[in-house]
Every structure is written in structure tokens, then in C-alpha cells.
Specification:
The chain has about 375 residues and is α+β, with helices and mostly antiparallel strands. About 30% of the residues lie in helices and about 35% in strands. Strands 2, 4, 7, 9, 10, 11, 12, 13, 14, 15, 16 and 17 form a 12-stranded antiparallel beta sheet that branches. A 4-stranded antiparallel beta sheet has the order 6-5-3-8. Strands 18-1-19 form a 3-stranded mixed beta sheet. Helix 2 packs antiparallel against helix 3.
Length: about 375
């Protein structure tokens, strides 16, 4: 019995020794593996000139948006245009019923004739001294009054023909034939929009406005407008409008409610693609000279800080950077990264400070890919 116990104890000790030895070998292997450099993609930081486009929602309006209202009261007798129709300045749009005005005009004309007859009758009598001059002056005053009344009615008859004051496109026609209209109607008879040129209105907040003012040369608003770069227009289908525009006006005040400054950019519209009331997006370019531009995937957001890893003496070193601006895919770095440094662009979440790293640059990746392909 004692002999069997001794054998079991010896066997257990042997197994324990073998197990501990294997654990030690695995630990040594793991430690050796962690000390081996990781091959990671990287880029060498260089300075370059770049241009980015800031996007701002914009509202499009025609060069002129003129509400058409009648100067005289009356019923709509005829409408000569249709919605969306192109019209020219002076073209007849509406005709109002003038029967009542015509009758009033006939009565006023008769009053003018009667007053004229009275003046003509009194003139020779005054010259001969038969009647006093006061009677003639009274008759002449009545004639002038009758003529003024007739002219007013005649003008109202002319106002019954409503014409377009500008070239443009007809908007909605909310009032139909037979409707009673006046100069105070709401809505107006229609709106004529001159869209040969269009105006795109957009806003910059205070921070954006400050950046714009710093970047664009000029001591006055007029000089900054003159030196501002041309802008582009992205339409609702994400296509870029063929004509470039120019910043034409900048509001001199900041809106106290929104904290924004309104800009206006003007565009030619030769093919009538743009319509008043439409929406679009202004693309305002910003140029950066000698800037450090890195891909966004090379920067990691860690508790509100922008963290990067660079390679120094064969090891990964973490740094924080300040971002000046960005595009859809890249960051423009303001500080924290210097030209010539090697920036790691992958596996950032797995890295730790001091970890050995072998940078694999883009040219090396291409060579390796070509070698693998040839095999």
C-alpha cells in the first residue's frame, strides 16, 4: 500500500513539472512575440497646398420677383398667360371688367364737354364786360375739375389691362376668371420672376465668418467681395451646376437671433435650369498653403481628443493634434504633427506607446502587391 502511494506521488510530481515547464515556455513565446515589431501601414508627413469646399444650404431667388397686383378694382375678365410661361416686359397678363368704369367715363366726358361749353359761352361776355370775370373763373375751375375726374376714370380703365413690368416666368395663378380683385388682394394675381440670373442666399455662422474674413484679402467688405473666390452650386440631385457664381453681397450685420451673416452669390441661368424658390447647396472653396493633410482614418477620437501614432526610434508614440479643417476624407492639421514624421494609418486601437513597429509605406505596399500578383 505504501509502495503504491509513493508511485502516485512521484507520477503527480512529474506531471506538475512538465505542466509548469510548458507554461513557462508558452509565456516566454508570448513575450518574445510581443517584442517582435508589428508591420503597419504608414505615411511620411509632407506639407502641400490643398483646396476644400465648405457646404452651405442656399435658397434660390430670381433677379427680380415681382408681385403682380391690379391698380384698379374689378372682376377678372380674361387671363392671357399660364403658369410657368415665359413673358416679356409690357406683355398683357390680365384684363379686368371695365363696363362700369366705361359708363362712368362717358358721364365724366359729358361733364367735361358741358363745362367746356360754359367756359366758351362766358369768355366773350367777359370780354365785352357784360358779366363779371368771377363767373368765368368759376366755370374754368369746374372744367378743370371735370377733366381731372375724367382722367382718373380713364386711367382706371387703362389699369384694367394688367401687363408685366419685367421679363420673366409666370408663377402661380391663384385667382380665376370672374374673381373680384383689388390692389390689396392676398395673394397677388401672380408673380413674375426674372431668372436670367439667379441669386443664391446662404448664411455663415460667426466662426465661419471669421475664418472667411481671415482667409480673403481686403480691408473692407467691398474688397473682400472682390477678392472672394468663385463658388459652385450643388443641386438637389447632387450634380454640380455648370455655371460658377460670384459672391456679390455680404450683409454688414450679424443676425442677433441666429448669429449668422447672410451672403449672396449670383449665377447666370442661360438654360433656365434654376427656378426661383428652389433650394441648393453653395460650395465655397478654401485654399490652404503649406498645410499638413492626413487621412481621417489615421486620427482616432479618444475622449474628445484627436489621437495619432507616429513612429520614433522604431516604436509607436502617441500624440494629440489640433484639427484646423476637414474634407469628406481628410483632416487639415493645425498643430501637433510635423513635416517629416512617420504617421501610422492602421490598427490604431491595438497600439500602445512604446510598442515596436515597422512602418510599411505605400510604395512598399504596391511592390508587395505586385510581387504577390506575379506569383
Amino acid at each position: 500500500m505504501k509502495k503504491q502511494s509513493f508511485v502516485l506521488i512521484a507520477l503527480f510530481g512529474l506531471l506538475t513539472f512538465v505542466s509548469c515547464n510548458n507554461d513557462a515556455k508558452q509565456a516566454d513565446a508570448a513575450q518574445a512575440q510581443t517584442q517582435q515589431p508589428m508591420s503597419l501601414k504608414a505615411i511620411k508627413v509632407v506639407k502641400s497646398s490643398t483646396e476644400i469646399f465648405q457646404e452651405y444650404p442656399a435658397k434660390i431667388e430670381g433677379l427680380q420677383n415681382v408681385e403682380i397686383r391690379p391698380k384698379a378694382n374689378g372682376f377678372i375678365e380674361k387671363i392671357f398667360v399660364d403658369e410657368g410661361q415665359q413673358v416679356k416686359k409690357g406683355q398683357l397678363l390680365f384684363k379686368l371688367e371695365t363696363q362700369t368704369l366705361t359708363q362712368d367715363a362717358a358721364a365724366a366726358k359729358a361733364a367735361v364737354n358741358a363745362a367746356q361749353v360754359e367756359v366758351d359761352r362766358l369768355k366773350p361776355l367777359v370780354e365785352k364786360g357784360i358779366v363779371g370775370k368771377v363767373l368765368l373763373e368759376t366755370a374754368q375751375a369746374r372744367l378743370a375739375q371735370a377733366k381731372a375726374s375724367y382722367s382718373s376714370i380713364a386711367a382706371n380703365i387703362n389699369y384694367a389691362n394688367v401687363t408685366s413690368p419685367v421679363n420673366g416666368v409666370i408663377g402661380a395663378l391663384p385667382h380665376k376668371v370672374g374673381a373680384l380683385v383689388s390692389s390689396t388682394i392676398t395673394p397677388a394675381l401672380t408673380t413674375v420672376s426674372d431668372t436670367r440670373e439667379i441669386r443664391a442666399y446662404f448664411n455663415l455662422n460667426e466662426k465661419q465668418m471669421l475664418a472667411f474674413s481671415k482667409q480673403v484679402n481686403g480691408a473692407t467688405t467691398a474688397e473682400k467681395i472682390k477678392n472672394a473666390p468663385n463658388v459652385s452650386l450643388k443641386l438637389v440631385d447632387n450634380s454640380i451646376y455648370s455655371e460658377t457664381g460670384k459672391v456679390a453681397a455680404i450683409n454688414g450685420l450679424v443676425d442677433a437671433t441666429t448669429g449668422a451673416t447672410q451672403f449672396r452669390a449670383d449665377f447666370k441661368n442661360p438654360q433656365a435650369i434654376l427656378r426661383s424658390g428652389a433650394s441648393a447647396t453653395i460650395l465655397l472653396p478654401s485654399k490652404f498653403e503649406n498645410a499638413i493633410v492626413v487621412p481621417q482614418y489615421a486620427v482616432m477620437d479618444l475622449q474628445g481628443k484627436n489621437l495619432i501614432y507616429v513612429v520614433k526610434d522604431g516604436k509607436a508614440v502617441s500624440k494629440t493634434v489640433e484639427i484646423l479643417n476637414q474634407t469628406d476624407r481628410e483632416y487639415i492639421i493645425a498643430s501637433g504633427l510635423e513635416e517629416g514624421e512617420v504617421l501610422i494609418t492602421e490598427a490604431l486601437a491595438k497600439l500602445k506607446d512604446g510598442q515596436p513597429v515597422t512602418p510599411v509605406f505605400e510604395t512598399e505596399n504596391k511592390t508587395q502587391e505586385n510581387t504577390n500578383t506575379s506569383k
